[in-house]
Amino acid sequence: MHQHNIDTLQNDVEHLYNERSELQQFVLRFKNSNEKYLQIKRIAEEVVDRLLKERKSLVQIRWRI
User: Are residues 6 and 29 in the same domain?
Assistant: First the structure.
């Protein structure tokens, strides 16, 4: 009986591992091919870059004062 439970759990774990791998591949394909996602990512990167540059400028100005 215990062996049966162990086998069942091993099968469940293997199934979940395979499902996880499939989902990871799906997400990777989505990230690399979905235009909306890529556009949003590009915009977010631009905003972050701009904010970091502004912060750097503010820090430099503060040190001059």
Answer: yes
Q: For the whole prediction, is pTM greater than 0.70?
A: no
pLDDT tens-digit series, residues 22-46:
999 999 998 888 999 899 999 999 9
Rounded distance between C-alpha atoms, residue 31 and residue 2, angstroms = 43
| Cα 65 from Cα 46, distance rounded (Å) | 29
Residue 54 Rama label (left phi>0; alpha psi -120 to 50; beta): alpha
* Pairwise CA distance, residues 15 & 36, whole Å: 32
The confidence score (pLDDT) of residue 64 equals 65
Two structure tokens written together for 15: 């199934």
Judgement on whether residues 24 and 42 belong to the same structural domain of the protein: no
Residue with tokens 């591992």: 17
